[in-house]
Amino acid sequence: MLGLALLALTALTTLCRSADRTPRGDRWTITEREVLASMSLDRLPPLPPDASNAFADRADAAALGRRLFEDVRLSRDGRVACASCHDSQHQFQDGRPLGQGQGTGLRRTMPIRGAARGPWFFWDGRKDSLWSQALGPLEDGLEHGSNRTRLAQQLRQHYRADYEAVFGAMPSLDGLPSDAGPLGTADEKLAWSRMTTTQRDAVTRVFANLGKAMAAYERTLQPGHSRFDRYAQAVQAGDVEGLRVLSAQEVLGLRLFIGKAQCATCHNGPLLSDQAFHNTGVPARDPDRPDHGRGPALARVQGDEFNCLGRYSDAPVQACVELRFIATSDPAMEGAFKTPGLRDVALRPPYMHAGQVATLEDAVAHYRRSPAAAVGQSELARDGIAVPGRQAIRLTDEEARQLVAFLGALSADPETSGLPHR
Amino acid sequence: MRRRSLLTVSLFAATAVAMAGVLVACGTPPADLDLSLRHASAEGRFVAEMLPPAQGPAVGQMHAWTLKLTTPDGAPVSHAQVAIKGGMPQHGHGLPTQPRVTGEPAPGTYVIEGMKFSMTGWWDLHLDIATTTAKDRAVFNVVMADAGLKR
Q1: Residue A301 lies inside a defined structural domain of this protein
Q2: Do A404 and A332 have their domain in common?
Q3: How many helices (H) and strands (E) does chain A have?
Q4: Are residues B113 and B59 part of one domain?
Q5: Which of A144, A249, A403, B86 would bridge B125 by S-S if both were Cys, CB 3.0 to 4.6 A apart?
Q6: For residues A130 and A117, what is the distance between their CA atoms, to the nearest angstrom?
Q7: Is A389 in contact with B89 (Cβ distance < 8 A)?
Q8: pLDDT, tens digit, for every residue of B94-133?
Q9: Is the distance from CB of A170 to CB of A164 less than 8 angstroms?
């Protein structure tokens, strides 16, 4: 009995996080080891199928998609491709606070590696598939600024054989206006409205297939292993030498990340994102026009002709579980944005949905400050405003430095970065 | 012998007190959280039992639950209207999805589809239950861990 009681006390001392007082902090409890494993890339499940895109995993579609992704001809001024902002040499982003296409966008360009694994796309989740997402910028006046009939005609002119090898015969586009679409200029909209329903449908199907090819390419872009992943492997294997892949400061930062800094609450799983939407009181870029984020995007994705339940989707209704069970009445979605994954985070400042924060130090400072939200309510507990059961994020300056040091350990090793990974 | 068992008892007591303290200090859900998945509704009109999938679910995984609804004396309650809400009381946000009853395969047995927990931690589930003759609500608490639902 006495032995049992002592055993219980010993177990107890290993229960609480941050129990390790060793200088490097490499001794992890069973619970902590499980948290580290859950964040490691080895736990990334196989790429989930996309029932809405019948071509999602075809190599020929991906090869075509890659060429389309890099083709500047698909833009109004012939100078902007997807790859202009999603630069493969820079973690598929552009390093700018706001995307720059035909004009200046409203939000930060998002990186693409691992994107295929989330249910919602863009910062506000206004799209529900990678292919539907890829179509947005093509028709957005601030990005590619093109239109449907022009894009369909370009596909026919430059890519017909490859297109037909994947998607079958391309429809005749004879007699169609050169510039027409439902989202373009007034003239383009008028020209679109004068087309027959059959013509509009044929063009829109080519347009949707353009997105499906691009999505097939983007699905091949997966994150690479980082020093953190090797550390997590060493922890699981009890490999003392392997633990040295992280510095003492980085290990202390990791302990904060999964502990009192509360980062891992939302930045969880192998991609370090819960793929959900949160309002954390990030200041508006333009205080006069605060961004409402997920709130207004809910109606947009439900009404989108390219969503999982729409006529251009290949999915049976039963497969569209995210859209069928979309949460539409949560007031916390006002001013909420998707949790960004943190892989490669140190390589791609500036941060937040509109690049409001220049450095990782400033990003950590934001959470220490936990300001009130410009619109909606911040989820973060803060001094003077009690949230039952939650603590404000309190870090010393030294701890903030440790946390930033750890975030640097999430960058993919150069030798694995960008390799296709299925 | 008697002295030894007294020592054991006090060690156990110390462990229990320390355990409660540790749970609070770690910022985990309240120690007195009712995690029972079968209990009477708030006003005692129904007994509701919530059955999660046999394994998991993983954080972020879409999944289904089964609800078994009876009267207090155990008779199945058929054709009830059940509305599900939920969220994370410690974070101020709701469920990432809007689950709903999608079928009643047997009298008083309901399938709830569209369940997802996107984070570890304490989630609550509120069921508003209505039949033609009675209305009541039932609340359940669940705690998600990286390895799945704590059971």
Answers
A1: yes
A2: yes
A3: 14, 2
A4: yes
A5: B86
A6: 9
A7: yes
A8: 999 999 999 999 999 999 999 999 988 899 999 999 999 9
A9: yes
